[in-house]
Structure formats: structure tokens, C-alpha cells
Design goal:
Blueprint: E1 3-5, E2 12-14, E3 18-19, H1 30-42, E4 47-49, H2 58-70, E5 78-83, H3 97-111, E6 116-121, H4 130-142, E7 146-151, H5 156-169, E8 176-177, H6 187-192, H7 194-199, E9 203-204, H8 236-254
Parallel strand pairs: 3-4, 4-5, 5-6, 6-7, 8-9
Antiparallel strand pairs: 1-2
Helix pairs in contact: 1-2, 2-3, 3-4, 4-5
């Protein structure tokens, strides 16, 4: 396994990471999660990703319990989780100082950990001033609940705004962005974010490199394998969005 520094930091992560999205709780229970995590670590993976919204928090609980039962040394692994959708209440979502602090504490409780290595803002929040979010993420870091913070599915402009606020206030800016990146979704990583790599040392940890399995060729309109993610009731709408992406890509090639 190869390891690379995450952005301009000294944090080293495996080139492959293990994520809990869709699978944990929806498809995988604690017993299977332990086996999967153990195999991943045996292969050299040290980077494990989660989010408060995954299975409404159950994914974090399963990952935390599995790591505890496996007896892993905490310093041997890099754990990331994400904040934005924490519940149905008006203050249970978004990137306000209230939700960032309360959400972080809730994530750590579910993971049964004192800290995470990387805490992501899962989406941009247009209803919260960017300065409030930057200050809150730095408060989390200052209290030792996370070592670094990053963004997920933010635009280059939003990341730039966060960094300029951080520089103005003498605070830590986001060190990593987590966008979707695959054959059907390339522009953000290859074009839009290009200035960010040199200007701010932004790193990337991408999601859905195989477009949720579509690029494996196992799916078609008349064939959805049993127990695959597209067979899950709450996941079916995504396959139609993926089909649309294929159509747009083909049109681009034709034009």
C-alpha cells in the first residue's frame, strides 16, 4: 500500500480508503463489518470514512464498535466523519456553531472515540455565515475533538472564501475536499479546483470512483443484482441520475 500526505499536512493516509456509506447497517451488520475492516487494514488501508447521516448514525456506531472489538491501536488509523445532516430538528443540520459543536460530540459518542482525525463539512451551508463555520471548526480543533477539517462537495469559490476568512483571522483553513470523482464527474477535480491545489495546498479524498458500481458494468435497466446498493429502496433514485450522467457524457463526446 502507498501512503500520501493529505494536502499540505503531515498526515499520511493510504491511497485507498474504506467508507461506510450505504453498506454499514443497510447491508452490513457488526459481524461482517469487523471482517471487512480487518481485511482492509491487513491490506494496508489506514483511512476510514464515515458521516453522521450514514444510516442515521448507525454506521458510526457499527464502525466504532467494530474497531473497539478488533482492539486496534487508535494511532494506527485515520478516522474521518462528516457533519451536516444530524436530525430532523431545525438546528440538527447545517454548519452553525451550535450544530458543529453538538454534532461533533454526538459523532464521537457514536464512534466511542475521543477524537477524529479529519472532520468534514458535508455540504456548504448558505444559511450560515462562512466566518461562523470557520471559527466553529477551529474551536473543534482547539478542543482536540478533531485534528484537521475539510469540506465535501463545496465549490472552489466557497473553499476560497473559507480560506480567506481563516487567513484573515489567523485560523486553520480546510485542508481537504471530498468531491465525487469518476468518469462521469471530472470537471470539479480537473478544472474547477485546479487553482486550489497550489494556492491553499488542498488535498483530495474522493468518493464514488466507480459511480456507485455503475462503471463496473454490473447494472443495466433490466438487471439490478440482488443485494446490490441499487436494489435498496432508498437508493433507487440514484440510478436514474447516473443514467442521466451517462447520457450527458455521451452527448459531450458526440458534440
Amino acid at each position: 500500500m502507498q501512503y500520501r500526505n493529505l494536502g499540505s499536512t503531515g498526515l499520511k493516509v493510504s491511497t485507498l480508503s474504506f467508507g461506510a456509506w450505504v453498506t454499514f447497517h443497510n447491508q452490513v451488520d457488526l459481524k461482517d463489518a469487523k471482517q471487512l475492516l480487518a481485511r482492509a487494514k491487513e491490506g494496508g488501508i489506514n483511512f476510514f470514512d464515515n458521516a453522521e447521516v450514514y444510516a442515521s448514525g448507525r454506521a458510526e456506531e457499527i464502525m466504532g464498535q467494530a474497531i473497539k472489538e478488533l482492539g486496534w491501536k487508535r494511532s494506527d488509523v485515520v478516522i474521518a466523519t462528516k457533519l451536516f445532516w444530524g436530525g430532523p430538528g431545525p438546528n440538527d443540520k447545517g454548519l452553525s456553531r451550535k450544530h458543529i459543536i453538538e454534532g461533533t460530540k454526538a459523532c464521537l459518542k457514536r464512534l466511542e472515540m475521543d477524537y477524529v482525525d479529519v472532520l468534514f463539512c458535508h455540504r456548504p451551508d448558505a444559511s450560515t455565515p462562512i466566518e461562523e463555520t470557520v471559527r466553529a471548526m477551529n474551536f473543534v480543533i482547539d478542543n482536540g475533538w478533531a485534528f484537521y477539517w475539510g469540506t465535501s462537495e463545496w465549490s472552489a469559490q466557497q473553499i476560497t472564501e473559507a480560506w480567506e476568512v481563516a487567513r484573515k483571522l489567523g485560523l486553520i483553513g480546510p485542508i481537504v475536499e471530498q468531491p465525487e470523482y469518476n468518469l462521469l464527474a471530472r470537471d470539479k477535480v480537473e478544472v474547477e479546483y485546479l487553482p486550489l491545489y497550489s494556492s491553499y495546498g488542498i488535498g483530495l479524498t474522493t468518493w464514488s470512483p466507480l459511480a456507485s458500481g455503475v462503471l463496473t458494468g454490473k447494472y443495466s435497466k433490466n438487471s439490478v443484482p440482488a443485494e446490490s446498493r441499487f436494489s435498496l429502496e432508498n437508493y433507487k433514485p440514484r440510478i436514474w441520475r447516473t443514467d442521466l450522467s451517462w447520457m450527458m457524457l455521451l452527448l459531450k463526446w458526440i458534440i
